[in-house]
Every structure is written in structure tokens, then in C-alpha cells.
Specification:
This protein is of the alpha+beta class. About 50% of the residues lie in helices and about 15% in strands. The protein contains six helices and three strands. The protein has a three-stranded mixed beta sheet with strand order 1-2-3. α1 runs antiparallel to α3. It is globular and about 55 Å long.
Length: about 130
């Protein structure tokens, strides 16, 4: 017996190399959620009195668990203070719930806090090499 027709799926088959419209919508939705989470992380850190830069990387479009949020802080001292705050760590995790990141992926998403001082010292100021 054949499954019932799903009216949300395209009637014609998707050609090789062509993106499924539903898949495209999901990728756009995930990226939108990432932008919202990044903005919320920045707000949390500004509330702590720091001047952060926040970005993310990963293959979340393959599987949402492959995602890392990076919080860049100017000094080692500020980084250590943020890392010591358990409430800050739990606030970061709560953002995944707030912005409805896929539940099965939440435990795998990483949050890293690093200082510009460390990147300058260890990788000549190059963030890309630092995370390579």
C-alpha cells in the first residue's frame, strides 16, 4: 500500500543537484534561529559589563548538532570571569530552548568563550587558525 500524498511536498521529484523547497525552508529557519541566539548571547554578555563579539560556525545544515557559538572577549581576565559563572553557562543553554533549537541537537551544541589576548598570544591574532 502506498503512503498518502503529503500536500506539503512537491508533486514532481526533485532533480539531482536541485534543492528540495522544504529542505531550503528548514535551512533558512535554522539560520534565522542562529542569528537570534547570537544576538541574545551578546545581550547577556553586555549585561555582565563586557564588550563581546559573537559568531558561530559548523555544519548545522547537515545536522543541527554540529554547531559552535563563539564568544570573543577582549581579555583573559574577563573570559575567566565569564567561564566561572555557572549561571551564565546555564543561560546560554536556555537560549537553545527559548529559540526552539531542535531538541535532539541541544546537548551537542558547543559554546566557547575565548579572549582576544589568548588568540593574539597563541595564534598571532588569527581567530580562524585558533579554531582550525
Amino acid at each position: 500500500m502506498l503512503p498518502e500524498k503529503d500536500s506539503t511536498r512537491p508533486i514532481r521529484p526533485v532533480a539531482a543537484g536541485e534543492l528540495d523547497p522544504l529542505e531550503l525552508k528548514m535551512k533558512i529557519l535554522l539560520k534565522w534561529k542562529i542569528w537570534r541566539i547570537e544576538a541574545a548571547i551578546k545581550s547577556l554578555i553586555v549585561a555582565e559589563g563586557h564588550k563581546p563579539f559573537v559568531w558561530s560556525f559548523g555544519a548545522y545544515y547537515i545536522d543541527p548538532k554540529h554547531l559552535v557559538f563563539v564568544v570573543g572577549i577582549p581579555t583573559d581576565e574577563e573570559r575567566d570571569k565569564l567561564k566561572a559563572l555557572d549561571s551564565f553557562r546555564s543561560s546560554l543553554r536556555e537560549l537553545l530552548v527559548k529559540y526552539n533549537w531542535p531538541q535532539k541537537a541541544r546537548a551537542h551544541v558547543a559554546f566557547d568563550i575565548e579572549s582576544q589576548e589568548t588568540v593574539d598570544r597563541e595564534d598571532n591574532g588569527n581567530w580562524w587558525y585558533h579554531y582550525k
